[in-house]
């Protein structure tokens, strides 16, 4: 998808009340966004889909809601004070700041693109007789590009693992990576930049206490591990889920709601016996991928990306990437976090955080598998995949958001054909019956065609038109968003028809 197409999605989000720039009338606040009347419904539905898939479908997963402010020692224990850094580099000509690792990743992605294009061209040329594996092994241009990629990739992975900032700069220079704005290679040194926001709490004679805005929700789960385990009589393996705001002072904040300074996470920490963590890691990878694919946008839109550099707490890690308009990007991280967090909190708090396993008759510090997904990135992936421009018969076009019905902000629009003859009253009667289960919208303004287009643009899966026949025989026409087909149905069948596709229950049953 082109940059233009992405711009269209961003303006569509604004035009139809999904996402607004924060503080817009004051010229905005960079990388902070507000969700509008449609956006909040879609966002809440995404959160419900996640929450129910965790705590309804898994008997051994429970939820919590911990505070954003936490004792500052927590962030020392978690490693965020010392290690939650991004390597940044400035271009001296454009005065723009970049993440050094992102510049190199983009360079590697360009080589991948070159290789893929070469393969695509050859596949077209050779048709059915094309042997892709052989082509990879023998084509000189591919071999050359692959060797270059492997060499840079190996240097990059090592530099990240060793936190070798000088080597990161060297790679940027050696690869002749230029600033996209100034076009020059006049780079500063690479420096580390801590991403946490700091504020002050209370006021004492000694001064206020420095506190952080949490950069992840996960630590709220770790510090409550024993509270939940004991009060909930939880047996290992079990999980704790939570959704909530997180804050990061991102250096490169761009691509709309992809990288924000205030965002929302949905995280689950799953506590397991030591030694069983990699088995559970594999299980949660599978469960989470199924959750994504159940939305029906096509399996080819998703892929796993294993980490080159493992975070200080992990012994295995992968991302679930989604094909955004600007390429495959991380939407969710799945990490095997070992016992790092609990052991560290034990050390810093001086409190025991162990579990007595009645089956093994011994105490141990559980290992943890984490699934961590950003609500806003999930929102962006869904909107991007759903946004469709269609040419209709007669040369007309329509913009339709092909949202999964269960996630759509409005499930049903009820439209009286005219504003008289008792049709508005009949329409209101339908809404009054259905509104307890379904988010409905009443619309009587403009022609029926225009009203359909408005509903298409916000992704409403069902439009019901109330006409004169409706007042006589209690039937209406239902118009389906994706096919635009219409059928006449009895009003008392509407709830069943809509529930069949639009209920969260039926979506959850597919995972
Ligand atoms: N507790 C682990 C953790 O926070 P992460 O990979 O840093 O891991 C998890 O973040 C998810 O949170 C990401 O996959 C992404 O969806 C989301 N996320 C992270 N930073 C973000 C940002 N600046 N803006 C929007 N979403 C973000």
Describe the structure.
- 40% of the residues lie in helices and 24% in strands.
- It is globular and about 75 Å long.
- The protein is of the alpha+beta class and 511 residues long.
- It starts with a helix and ends with a helix.
- Strand 12 (316-324) and strand 13 form a beta hairpin.
- 33% of the residues are buried.
- It is built from 18 helices and 23 strands.
- The model has no long low-confidence stretch (mean pLDDT 95).
- It folds into three domains: 1-69 and 195-391, BirA Bifunctional Protein, domain 2 (2-Layer Sandwich), CATH 3.30.930.10; 85-194, 2-Layer Sandwich (Herpes Virus-1), CATH 3.30.40.230; 403-509, 3-Layer(aba) Sandwich (Rossmann fold).
- Bound molecules: glycyl-adenosine-5'-phosphate.
- Residues 216, 218, 248, 250, 259-260, 263, 265, 267, 330-333, 370, 372-374, 376-377 line the site of glycyl-adenosine-5'-phosphate.
- What is the strand tally? 23
- Bound small-molecule species: glycyl-adenosine-5'-phosphate
Question: How much helix, percentage-wise, in residues?
Answer: 25-40%
Shape: globular
Discrete helix count: 18
CATH domain topology of the largest domain: BirA Bifunctional Protein, domain 2
Low-confidence stretches: none
CATH superfamily of the largest domain: Bira Bifunctional Protein, Domain 2
- In percent, how much strand structure appears in the residues? 15-25%
- Indicate the radius of gyration in whole angstroms: 26 Å
Sheet with most strands: strand arrangement:
3-9-10-16-13-12-11
C-alpha termini separation: 29 Å
Query: What's the main sheet like?
Result: 7 strands, mixed
Average per-residue pLDDT, rounded, comes to: 95
Structural class by sheet pairing and helices: alpha+beta
Regarding CATH, which class of the largest domain? Alpha Beta
